[in-house]
Structure formats: C-alpha cells, structure tokens
Amino acid sequence: MTEPAPVTGTDFGGLRVVAFESRRAEEMRRLIVRFGGKPLVAPSMREVPLEDQHEALAFATRLFAGSLDVVILLTGVGTRTLIAALATRYSTEQIIQALGRVTRVVRGPKPIIALGEVGLKPTIAVAEPNTWRDLLATLDTQLPVQGKRVAVQEYGATNKELLDGLRARGAEVLRVPVYRWALPEDLGPLRQAVSAISDGQADVLLFTSATQVDHLMQIAVQMGREPSLREALRQCVVASVGPICSEALTRHRLPVDFEPSHPKMGSLLGEGSRASAELLRHKRATL
C-alpha cells in the first residue's frame, strides 16, 4: 500500500477522488477537477431494460381499464422506459389520457422531468431526501392509501420496505419492474478502481447510488481484494449522496463519513470537497 496523499489546502486540494458514475461519468470527472481533485471515475452500472415487459403490459391493462388509483414513479429512466413499453400498444395520446386519470406520485425531480416530456405533471411530489420513508410519510399526510390500488414503478431492484409499507397501510400493490441494474460491459475501470483503493492510491470515494456500492463490493470479492479494500477505507473519506446510499454502505459494513445537505451530485461535490481535508485529518489521526 502506498503512502496516503498529504492533506493540505481547501476544497479537494489535489486529493485523489474515486467516483462510480456511469451515465454522468464525464460530468463527474469535470466536477472533481473543478473542485480541485484528481479524478478516477469508474463506471459501475448500466440500466438494462427487461426483455419481457409483461409486468408493464399487465400494468397497462389495469391502467386503461380504470382499475388503478395511484401510480408511484420512482425514477426518470423508469418513467421513460415504462411509457416506451406502453407505446408498443397504445398511442401517446391514449397513454397521456390514461395516466392523467390516476394520481401520480413521484419521488424527486427526475420523474417530474420525464412526465413533463409527455405533457403531464405529478399530483404529489415527495420532498428531499426522497427516500422510501419520505414517500410513505408524504402519502400518510396527503394521500392515505387504505383501500387504494397502487402501482409502483421499480428502479432496477425491488424496494421491499416500500412495498411492505404500502401493504401495511391497506393498499393493494402492483409491482411494475421495467429495467434492472447490471454491471458495466467493460469491467476494466471498476477493477482498476478496486486496485487503486486497495493499494492506498485513493483519498476520497464518492457514491451516488446504492447499486454503486453493491457492485464495487461484488468486484472486490471477485478480485480477492475485499479485505485490503476495507482496510484502505480506514484512511479514506467515504462520501454518500444521501440516506439510501448510506444505508447500502452500512449494510456492507463500510463507513459513511459524509452526506451533503441535499441529496444532489452537485452538493456532494461542493460540500464534500470542502469537508474532505478535515475529515481525512481526523480519520488518519485516529489510526
């Protein structure tokens, strides 16, 4: 393991920053540089539309039959993928009319944008930090779901806590998975990141999704580097974009050293860059 970089200056101050963005990898690289860091961006995931969209089409059957009351949209990509699946059987006008008849609950700004692309607005928007707990709390105050038929557009994985929470509140729940998360086709950058972290060549890790954490640890185990990666993180700042991501880190028994005031990539970079130097000093002083 190499010696850790000295901690000096403000912002990242030349610290070696590892991130795991995929679709926004280049934007993340530019932001790290802008905030004074030395970037290593390793795409860690890709969205794979389900080949068999029978759940989406079953949702469509119920939607057009008027046998749904609420549709919960959790991601922008999922909202677009769901609308695209419906478009294989229905016109855009029919889809807009059908979605317009139900209560549309969205988690965060991205599904709002996706709805706006077809001329729709949400009925209820869940406020930051947009976790499943926030979603349930919002429904409790604005739309009790007792006796309601609720469809949930999933986001690459099933959120059991959300589904169980809806059922516990008396809702009839319909899962609507439309895509899944997979590892990137090119695993080279992610393996490089595992090696860099494990060899002490990283100072700050930035996570913007729970799946990034899962995939990093999956590759570390495959490479036989999990123990050395865990040891190396004792001398790194581990920054999480928000509560859902932090829960994944905790589930893997990894540290969570920093969360920004808002669960946004810009806030993670801006606030995290300013906090990293002091956090590193504290972690390394306690070793």
Characterization of the model:
The structure is a single chain. The protein is 46% helix and 16% strand. With 287 residues, the protein is of the alpha/beta class. The strands form 3 sheets. It has a 5-stranded parallel sheet with strand order 6-5-4-7-8, sandwiched between helices. Helix 1 (25-34) links the parallel strand 1 (16-19) and strand 2 (38-41).
Supply the helix-strand structural class.
Answer: alpha/beta
Helical content band: 40-55%
Content of β-strand: 15-25%
List the domain count as a whole number.
Answer: 2
Low-pLDDT stretches: none
| Intertermini distance | 15 Å
**What shape does the CA trace take?**
elongated
Order of helices and strands: EHEEHEHHEHEHEHEEHEHHEHH
| Spatial ordering of strands, largest sheet | 6-5-4-7-8
CATH class of the largest domain: Alpha Beta
Brief synopsis:
With 287 residues, the chain is α/β, with parallel strands linked by helices. It has helices at residues 25-34, 54-65, 76-86, 92-100, 109-116, 132-142, 160-168, 188-198, 210-223, 226-232, 243-251, 265-285; strands at residues 16-19, 38-41, 46-49, 70-73, 103-107, 124-126, 149-153, 172-176, 179-182, 204-207, 237-240.
Descriptive tags:
287 residues, alpha/beta, Rossmann fold, five-stranded parallel β-sheet, four-stranded parallel β-sheet, 12 helices, 11 strands
Write the layout of secondary structure elements.
Elements lengths: L15 E4 L5 H10 L3 E4 L4 E4 L4 H12 L4 E4 L2 H11 L5 H9 L2 E5 L1 H8 L7 E3 L5 H11 L6 E5 L6 H9 L3 E5 L2 E4 L5 H11 L5 E4 L2 H14 L2 H7 L4 E4 L2 H9 L13 H21 L2
Parallel strand pairs: 1-2, 1-10, 4-5, 4-7, 5-6, 7-8, 10-11
Antiparallel strand pairs: 3-9
